[in-house]
Amino acid sequence: MPTNGLITPRLAEEMIGSRLQLRPIESLPLTECVGGTLREDISAERDQPPFDRVAMDGIAGDSDTWRRGQRRLKLQGIHAAGAPQVTLARKNYAIEVMTGAILPVGCDCVVPVEQIDIDDGYATLRPSAVLTPFHNVHRRASDARQGSLLLTCGAPLRAPEIAIAASAGKANLRVSRQPEVAVVSTGDELVEPGQPIADFQVRRSNAYAIVASLLQRGFRRVTDCHIRDDESELTQRLALLLHTHDILILSGGVSMGRRDFVPQVLKQLGVQEVFHRIAQRPGAPMWFGSGPTDQAVFGLPGNPVSTLTCLIRYVMPAIAASMGMTGDVSERVALATPVTVDSPRAYFLPVCVEHDESGRPSAIPRPTHGSGDLLSLAGTDGFVELPPGPNTYPQGFISTGYRW
Ligand code: AMP
Ligand code: MG
Is the per-residue pLDDT at 3 higher than 90? Predict the structure, then answer.
């Protein structure tokens, strides 16, 4: 529902979500899939493990014979991982086996090297040895049967999922094609780090934050540029970027100033305004539009805390959803101390998430000196979204948290 003529964060989120299309699919080699989103189901290539797998370095033999009292065993030979299956020649023999080897025929138990004494071609079981069937054997299909579902469409591909896909024999995976993202900072006052700077100028930091956040989330097709507050330059360069990119993330130039040309230039370029301004603090001037070929165009306010907050609250979840990613982008977290919100707008409060004595996470407020105070964000974990005030939210109040 609109609040004081402005839309709520929830409505803004929904309006963005309804405009972003699911990304197309591409097939990539496994090593290039990390950080991506799986767009197919992955099933077990074979039983997992595919054979009764020796789980310890030691000796394998017949546990029934051992339990009947045979503790001194003639060593028949050595059987390593990767070797085809061998057969125990006699029940009172044992075979030296290595972790990962297929359990020999006639053997049903492995006793680790620490529980045997070897001398003169014989192994003697120590009293501590456990002699139950299939002890130290990772049994065939005990983890998964051939054909059973291991990973589902939408899974984020991190180290375990990549390893699981590899274990299923997949050299390539169908994943969401990465979007081409243009990060654009606007402002005559902005100067690149490393360049000389005058008193009246400001370091161009927002673009670095946005690019960092994208890279951190596995989005690698990112270009970064800076455009002056000049209407014709802005028009020319944004026109070009709209041709070459799926997503534009701009910072600055969306407020009420005479040099805030971004909304009007975008509209002239055929980008349809979906909303301008949200009932929130910081970041009220946020703009969002949809380009002629469905490009998503985010106009984030330039104040650095606003830029980052809007990026994490709206842009990143929208991109994740367009990648087909399942799972939550936010978490529920309790306030560690009471917080007063004095405005009738949703309030984004930077926090550190720490664990209380009982191990429960709680959000310790780290308020800034305003939306220009980037420095207060050092060491914070993210922010919580508090409902519109005026109100005092007590310690333990559960709100939605977003991580940087
Ligand atoms: P604007 O949204 O363009 O009115 O900018 C609001 C404030 O944010 C101004 O003080 C700008 O100098 C500052 N700002 C805008 N863009 C950046 C940027 N990329 N890095 C750091 N500060 C910025
Ligand atoms: Mg500006």
Answer: no
The CA-based dihedral angle spanning residues 110, 113, 115, 121, taken in that order and rounded to the nearest 10 degrees? 90
Q: How far is it, in rounded angstroms, from Cα 111 to Cα 127?
A: 11
pLDDT in tens, 317-347: 999 999 998 888 999 999 999 999 999 999 9
CA-closest residue to ligand 1 atom 5? 302
CATH topology of domain 28-48+143-176: Molybdopterin biosynthesis moea protein, domain 2 (3.90.105)
Task: Output the CA 213–ligand 2 centroid distance in Å.
Answer: 21
Question: Are residues 184 and 238 in contact, defined by beta-carbon separation less than 8 angstroms?
Answer: yes
From first CA to last CA, the distance across the chain in angstroms is 27
Written as six digits, the tokens of 48 are 């997992």
| Sequence-separated contacts (24+) of 362-368 with Cβ below 8 Å | 362/333, 362/334, 362/335, 362/336, 363/333, 363/334, 363/335, 363/336, 363/399, 363/401, 364/336, 364/337, 365/335, 365/336, 365/337, 365/339, 368/305
Tell me how far CA of residue 211 lies from CA of 13, 251, 253, 262, in angstroms: 21, 12, 19, 20
Residues in the chain, overall count: 404
Give the tens place of pLDDT for each residue, 37-69: 999 999 999 999 999 999 999 999 999 999 999
Q: Which atom of ligand 1 is nearest to the CA of 202?
A: 12
Q: Which CATH class is domain 330-403?
A: mainly beta
Q: How far is CA 320 from CA 20, 23, 214, 270, 323, in A?
A: 10, 10, 11, 25, 5
Whether the bond into 387 is cis, omega within 30 of 0: no
Architecture of domain 9-23+178-322: 3-Layer(aba) Sandwich (3.40)
Neighbours of 161 (CB within 10 A): 19
Give the distance (Å) from ligand 2 centre to CA of residue 223.
20
